[in-house]
Amino acid sequence: MFDALILMLDSTVRLSTPLLLTALAGLYAERSGVFDIGLEGKLLIAAFAAAATASVTGSAWLGALAGMGASILFALLHGLACITYRGNQIVSGVAINFLAAGLTALLGTAWFHQGGRTPPLMGGERFQTLQLPFAESLADVPVIGGIYSELLSGHYLLVYVAFAAAPFSWWVLYRTRFGLRLRAVGENPAAVDTAGISVVRMRYLALVCAGVLCGLAGAYLAVAQSAGFIKDMSAGKGFIALAALIFSKWRPIQVMFACLLFGFLDAAAIRLQGQELPLIGAAPVQLIQALPYILTVVLLAGFIGKAVPPKAGGTPYVKER
Amino acid sequence: MPSEVTPQAPPSPGQRRPPAIELVGISKSFGAVQANRDIALRVEAGTIHGVIGENGAGKSTLMSILYGFYQADSGDILVGGRKVSIPDSQAAIALGIGMVHQHFMLVEPFTVLENVMLGAEGGALLNRGRAKARAELVRLEREYDLRVDPDAIVGDLPVGQQQRVEILKALYRGADILILDEPTGVLTPDEADQLFRILAQLKSQGKTVVLITHKLREIMAITDSCSVMRQGRMVATRPTAGTSVEELAELMVGRRVLLRVEKGPANPAEIRLKVEDARVVDGQGVERLRGVSLEVRAGEIVGVAGVAGNGQSELLEAIAGIRPLASGEITLCGKPCAGTDPNGLRAEGLAHVPEDRHRMGLVTKFDAKENVILGYHDRAEYRSGLFLDRGAILEACRRHMQDFDVRPPAPDLKTANFSGGNQQKIVLAREIEQDPAVLIVGQPTRGVDVGAIEAIHRRLIELRDAGKAILLVSVELDEIRALSDRVLVMFDGRVMGELPGDAGEREIGLLMSGVEAAHA
């Protein structure tokens, strides 16, 4: 029983990682007042760029860099549309999702001729898991061994990066000048402007942060968790991350817990696949998978507190006459 | 704090400081609209200088140029005797110019301290700057008597205190010249007095204050000199001691205006509108109306005074059938009507001029003739079979426009392209045309220029004399006092007391700040 639980938590951590990185990406964008429904698209294009580059260059690291680059490029495209040209942020985000879905399929087929897949990544083309010190020797110690060697050790570097990124983002948001300005620009850009700070610059910077984090998430999907890119492999994770962001009311530490919860639901759905449960019968896997969305809708309906988005979110900043 | 600001010595006898601000030949146009034409302005250091003018006279544009929000098309700006260019707000701040905007530039979920620091954090990490800012705030508080709790969340503070935060922000950045744009619009008379005391204090410390306002009394009360703008031009500058309210009003409008509409005594008849113990709870579960009772009789204007946000809007909306009552009863011409929808109420003889004409009164993207029938579009006179009778609508619109002197009288013009005063006339025309028994009016002259205010006020008095029952909600105390036969003062969702229409400003102001009437 304990072992099963550890295994489940272990896969929770793995499955939460891309959600967490993506949700934090959304956090930077949305706290700056730019709604980012294009997380899914950035995740997908990053996964593709990472896998393609890793496969061609033979380096997982270069793959990750390329993933970040592609995702930043898409973030800047979003910025161009809705910061510089003051377009609708939702429309721009949806466009980015379509663009990523189409572009990855097209380029994947054209370049690798494997029906949209990239070639399987092997050896140094893929990230390796890290063993924490003494993981092996502690493995047989009851309880602690399970927790340390299974749950905490043996993950990809990006997993540790993701879980460090949450408290780090908290520190950035609440303890640095950049964070103060970022939060301010999402609440009242006019206040930021009159304080002599460029609203446009702040929002672009926030989108670049989002691009970096989405890039890491994409690299994790294609170059760590899986050995290569598969068509549409983001599979709605960008939207679940968005749900987690709303669920946590745009706060970094809470984002981490929301992602862990949603990751756990995902892990449970996988584990219960095809199993008979007492009383219920066949496990309602689809229901479990839909739970993140259901929970978010319940939250938005006001049953669990109230989710108030950054006040200036969704509206392009125009100096008033 | 910017280091390039040359510290100016406090004024000493015998030593003349150069003017704090001097504008020469400033012009600015937006497309075809010339907002400022060849403006000259001289503000002496260490004085309070008023700039008055109607809405759209170009005051705000001029000040935005001074604060680096816009660039002038031509002309020179001199600050402290030196010619400068102000490409952005940062440059203005560096020159020691601070601005308190009409709509506060505050981040509501932030603390006072965070708001003051924003843009002047003193380093990439907040910790060190925060300690410095806190110490500086304490100093400013002592020096200028600007008491605000640095750790309070700005959104929780009353408006008067939020305004102090804005002033503190400017002072923290080392402002020597403080520009205030319509600072008293949102304040109670008492808060306004406090603000004036602070401004006097700033002046005594050698700071220069520029006060932009359309309220003539403020100019008379606090300024040393004042300049009048009209249609983008600076038409006159006067020492305050050598001018009068009447002269300034005439300069502002360009012709003689009656500041007080003449009205005879009211002849109240039967009760037309009766509200009993009305309670309204908003979406957040907060009780916004806590048992309000009132009566309005035919042939009288009952004014509801109060600082914005004390339940007046909810009262209007409840009577108009837009907001449901939690409890209580509303009687219209003897018939109980709580729960009737706005359309039903209209049929019963209620007309509503909403507080916010853009949000509720008009569809600004529609043209004038379409707005003239909104809410009455299903009346037989505007219909021909299943369709709207375009000819009849056009005819009605023409008639309204003539009756109310709407300019330009163009039924096909998009409503957004009319000035505020003319938009308001369109709403009034629509509501009055149906010959209602009861008229409820919210902020009838908000954002309306002086000339149109006069016309709207005169119209309301005429309606009263024609036997209508009128309930007037306004945050402008002058308006309440000019029009009302009886004044109810609201505070925190309750009616604090009733005063006669000629009650003094102090008396009303006291009730507005929540102090019970002495005899109550």
Automatic annotation (TrEMBL), chain A:
- Key word Aminoacyl-tRNA synthetase present: no
Q: Which UniProt keywords apply?
A: Cell membrane, Membrane, Transmembrane, Transmembrane helix
User: Which Pfam families does the entry link to?
Assistant: BPD_transp_2
An annotated GO cellular component:
plasma membrane
**Superkingdom to which the source organism belongs:** Bacteria
Where does the chain cross the membrane? 45-78, 90-112, 156-174, 204-223, 255-274, 286-304
- Protein name in the entry: Nucleoside ABC transporter membrane protein
Automatic annotation (TrEMBL), chain B:
Membrane topology, from the record = Peripheral membrane protein
- The yes or no answer to whether the keyword ATP-binding is present is yes
**Protein's cellular compartments:** Cell membrane
Record InterPro entries: AAA+_ATPase, ABC_carbohydrate_import_ATPase, ABC_transporter-like_ATP-bd, ABC_transporter-like_CS, P-loop_NTPase
Asked if Translocase is a keyword of the record, the answer is yes
Record's keyword terms, sorted: ATP-binding, Cell membrane, Membrane, Nucleotide-binding, Repeat, Sugar transport, Translocase, Transport
Q: Per its UniProt record, what Pfam families does this chain match?
A: ABC_tran
Q: Which GO terms describe its molecular function?
A: ATP binding; ATP hydrolysis activity
Q: Which PROSITE patterns match?
A: ABC_TRANSPORTER_1, ABC_TRANSPORTER_2
All residue ranges annotated as the ABC transporter domain in the record: 21-256, 273-517
Its cellular-component GO annotations read: plasma membrane
Q: What is this protein called?
A: Nucleoside ABC transporter ATP-binding protein
Provenance organism:
Albimonas donghaensis
